[in-house]
């Protein structure tokens, strides 16, 4: 029915209003934090719960210093490949400095690189470490004060490194680290037992991070702690750990921290049971860690434990390759594809394929809009045919409404008889709209999650398709426009195309509905004005193509 079509439009409007309010109108400011972080704790469960301070981060409670000063104060092993650069602190063998060379913080030419990992002494430390735990307090295991030795000068894809530390009690700890050409570290931890008795150790790894705020604004993309454990995706917000830690047991999977475009995680070796814990260790400081099963090392023997660590950008194709090549369960879900995963991910790969042909993501989005319109052409044709016939019989409908205005049952019967006589199916306009809703939100999701679209230019003033149109009204009119109403040129064009499209549709029977629908182009204009410009460009071309198609069908049916 025609009423169903109106309800669908209103549903889309309400959903977009809600999305807009949460994402744009009420962002929560990031409060300054001066709380000192406490040492990280990894627990081993045996007969009696044991807490062992593996990190012993004595330096994290010191006054905050710059990253440069923190790096200068340590002996370090350099890390570098085509995508990343950084270093490992040899005191504690901690990976705590990492820059993403391909990605800049802003669009400015001299913008610094994205800084992913930072040392403990800085304002927001973010680091990864691994090692061994012993339930025997007499056995010395390496900690944050242990200084490791290394023969190599740098860790590169062509040059793995070997770190060593001797506890002076007959145990030699060896750590072999390799790095691929992208963002994956492989670590093999070995222990040589040169004593006369067997020892038992537990392998562990952790990622510790202090965030600027736990009160993140609502977003379409999950930012917080993440993992796939026992085949289930876990997305944990920082505030969810305020009162209670979360623990899991699994033999495979991965766990770490997720930002909009960046991601760190350790990947388990699929060979033994691991206890995974997500915890808040101090004010605004969080840790994800694992402790593996006990490993018994016989006298005069050596035992190893393997783990992988990912630290880098959420490049979707790369994550898919890691998932396939290393058999990492659901590793692609580090990217928040959302409810419409079955649409969102294919949409990304279609856009990526079009971009590889055209060389411009904006034109790829426009071509994508044209392809979608072509795919939906037959359904849209039926919908527009029905709307054209509805508009043609509008005078007859108005006459029926006037005749039976006091008898709703008779009005409904007479209306249905007219539809039957004119061979009109009012419900045929619903299907294209039903399809457009998931398509719209899936594309919206792609533009928010895909790092490949971050800082991607179009033409003219559009330098970043993942950001709102920067050429706003206040800029070219020099008028004091409030932020909510200050929108760019592309949203205005989109609003005009939506208004013209609406003028071709049959007028609602109710005057109140007619007024509401007249306001919809204006409401959508100001809402979409603060969304990614790539989405607005897509919607504009979609409207233009729909206008052309609908106008042609109206001419065919003799409708003015």
> Looking at CATH, which topology of the largest domain would you report?
Beta-galactosidase, Chain A, domain 5
Radius of gyration: 30 Å
Low-confidence stretches: 1-11, 18-41, 45-61
**Helical residues, percent:** 25-40%
Strand content: 25-35%
CATH class of the largest domain: Mainly Beta
Number of strands: 22
Give the termini distance in whole angstroms. 22 Å
Helical stretch tally: 13
Offer a concise description of the structure:
It contains 13 helices and 22 strands. The protein is an alpha+beta fold and about 550 residues long.
Molecular structure report:
The chain is an alpha+beta fold and 560 residues long. It has 2 domains: 31-334, Beta-galactosidase, Chain A, domain 5; 355-392 and 421-556, no CATH class. It is 35% helix and 26% strand. It contains 13 helices and 22 strands. The protein has helices at 2-25, 67-72, 316-325, 341-358, 361-375, 377-392, 394-403, 408-422, 430-449, 473-477, 489-504, 511-528, 533-556, and strands at residues 42-44, 50-52, 76-80, 84-89, 94-104, 113-117, 126-133, 149-150, 154-155, 161-166, 171-179, 184-193, 199-210, 224-229, 232-236, 246-250, 253-258, 262-267, 274-282, 285-292, 295-297, 301-313. The strands form 4 sheets. A 9-stranded antiparallel beta sheet has the order 8-10-11-12-22-18-17-14-15, with no helix packed on it. Strands 7, 13, 16, 19, 20 and 21 form a 6-stranded antiparallel beta sheet that branches. A hairpin with a 5-residue loop joins strand 1 (42-44) and strand 2. It starts with a helix and ends with a helix. The relative contact order is 0.10. The model is unreliable at 1-11, 18-41 and 45-61 (pLDDT under 50).
């Amino acid at each position: 029915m025609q009423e169903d079509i109106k309800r669908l439009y209103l549903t889309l409007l309400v959903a977009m209003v809600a999305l807009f309010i949460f994402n744009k109108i009420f962002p929560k400011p990031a409060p300054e934090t001066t709380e000192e972080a406490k040492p990280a704790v990894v627990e081993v469960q045996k007969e009696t719960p044991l807490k062992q301070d593996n990190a012993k981060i004595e330096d994290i409670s010191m006054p905050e210093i710059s990253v440069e000063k923190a790096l200068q104060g340590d002996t370090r092993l350099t890390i570098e490949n085509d995508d990343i650069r950084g270093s490992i602190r040899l005191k504690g063998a901690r990976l705590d400095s990492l820059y993403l060379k391909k990605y800049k913080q802003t669009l400015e030419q001299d913008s610094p690189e994205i800084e992913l990992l930072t040392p403990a002494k800085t304002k927001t430390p973010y680091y990864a470490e691994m090692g061994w735990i012993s339930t025997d307090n007499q056995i010395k295991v390496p900690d944050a004060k242990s200084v490791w030795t290394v023969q190599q000068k740098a860790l590169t894809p062509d040059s793995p490194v070997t770190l060593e530390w001797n506890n002076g009690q007959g145990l030699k700890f060896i750590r072999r680290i390799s790095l691929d050409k992208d963002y994956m570290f492989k670590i093999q931890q070995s222990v040589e037992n040169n004593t006369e008795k067997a020892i038992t150790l537990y392998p562990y790894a952790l990622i510790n991070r202090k965030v600027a705020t736990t009160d993140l604004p609502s977003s379409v993309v999950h930012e917080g702690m993440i993992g796939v454990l026992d085949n289930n995706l876990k997305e944990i917000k920082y505030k969810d750990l305020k009162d209670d830690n979360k623990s899991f047991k699994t033999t495979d999977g991965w766990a770490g921290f997720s930002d909009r475009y960046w991601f760190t995680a350790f990947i388990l070796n699929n060979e033994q049971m691991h206890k995974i814990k997500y915890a808040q260790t101090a004010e605004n400081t969080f840790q994800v860690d694992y402790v593996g099963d006990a490993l018994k090392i016989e006298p005069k023997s050596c035992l190893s434990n393997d783990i992988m660590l990912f630290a880098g950008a959420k490049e979707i194709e790369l994550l898919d390759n890691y998932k396939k090549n290393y058999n990492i369960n659901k590793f692609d879900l580090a990217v928040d594809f959302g409810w419409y995963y079955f649409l969102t991910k294919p949409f990304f790969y279609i856009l990526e394929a079009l971009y590889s042909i055209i060389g411009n993501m904006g034109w790829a989005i426009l071509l994508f809009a044209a392809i979608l319109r072509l795919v939906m052409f037959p359904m849209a044709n039926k919908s527009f045919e029905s709307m054209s016939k509805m508009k043609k019989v509008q005078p007859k409908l108005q006459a029926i409404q006037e005749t039976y205005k006091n008898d709703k049952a008779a009005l409904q019967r007479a209306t249905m008889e007219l539809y039957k006589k004119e061979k009109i199916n009012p419900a045929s306009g619903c299907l294209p709209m039903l399809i457009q809703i998931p398509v719209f939100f899936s594309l919206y999701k792609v533009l928010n999650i895909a790092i490949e679209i971050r800082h991607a230019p179009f033409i003219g003033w559009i330098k970043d398709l993942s950001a709102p149109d920067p050429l706003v009204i206040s800029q070219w009119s020099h008028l004091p426009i409030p932020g909510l109403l200050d929108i760019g040129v592309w949203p205005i064009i989109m609003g005009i195309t939506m208004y013209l499209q609406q003028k071709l549709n049959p007028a609602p029977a109710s005057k109140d509905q007619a007024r509401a629908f007249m306001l919809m182009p204006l409401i959508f204009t100001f809402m979409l004005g603060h969304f990614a410009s790539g989405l607005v460009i897509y919607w504009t071309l979609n409207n233009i193509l729909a206008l052309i198609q609908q106008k042609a069908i109206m001419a065919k049916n003799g409708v003015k």
